[in-house]
Request: fold
Amino acid sequence: MDNCKSKIVNSKLTVAVLMGGIGEERDISIQSGTCVAWALEEAGLNVVTADIGPNKLEILDDSDIDVFFLALHGRFGEDGQLQQLLEDRGLIYTGSGPRASRLAFDKMAAKKVFAQAGINVPPALELSPGVGIEQLEEQLQQLGRKYVVKPLRQGSSVGISIVTDPRQAVAAAQKTCIEFGDCMIEKFISGREVTVGISPGPCGRGLPPAQGWGLITLPTIEIRSKTGFYDYQAKYIDERTEYLFDTIDDAAVSARIKTAALDCFNALGCRHFARVDLILGKDDIPYALEVNTIPGFTTHSLLPKAAAKAGLSMSDLCVRIVDSAYAPLAKRRA
Reply:
């Protein structure tokens, strides 16, 4: 057990694991929260769990809770709403704050922040009510010949489609807007889909991020879907999807991927942990897709897989995250 883990365990903190929520990813969130609770209990922490929602906030009034571990995905849990409630009450919680969460959850807002920070992103158009269909099709022809249509504020690849014609792209975007709200049409970048987990280092030691708390970038995972599209089916249902380590042979390219991931994390102002999804183009340039501020914590999720590759158990990972949330307060009180 590293020093950081032994200190946080010996402090006998009570951690409330929050899960559930109201989004399309509710079931995945409950799985994540259950795994987090088990991992923290295994480490020796006092753990309670709560299925939380906008009208189920009683757990936030429990004065015995030292740290709230957020394991919600999607709406309410990952979009800054819950984070703002916790901030307003002065409570200690894991993960990014309200502003970073809101930015990361809005794919177009995040893309603009990345671009301003000099990070490569696939160009995209946001579908707005005032744009004429013919004008949009002309703009798409300038963008490329293959497109990804995405809801702006959804996770787990919900509502995403790939099309190869401007007219199809517009039709898919209109349908997506009706079902999910605002959406964008992004240029399809041909390449390899990779993801990089970002985790607290031992006792805060690691790369120095903008937030001032030590981080480490976990081993890069390359995702290979048998259908060529890493959608909800490929993520949670299709057992043929491959998650591969050590597939980037060029050390310089590997370093660029990790640097881009950390740059995305810092550009949004994230903290504690996240997972950054990118496309490694055929030109060996990593293009940022999105930052998942509360990625999955199930036994099949990518952040725990990457942590395990780095020698960290689920228990190690979750305790480090709790420590990164609680330790700054403990230092101020000392």
About this structure: The mean pLDDT is 88. The domain at 104-120+190-292 is CATH 3.30.470.20 (D-amino Acid Aminotransferase; Chain A, domain 1). The first strand starts at residue 14 and ends at 20.
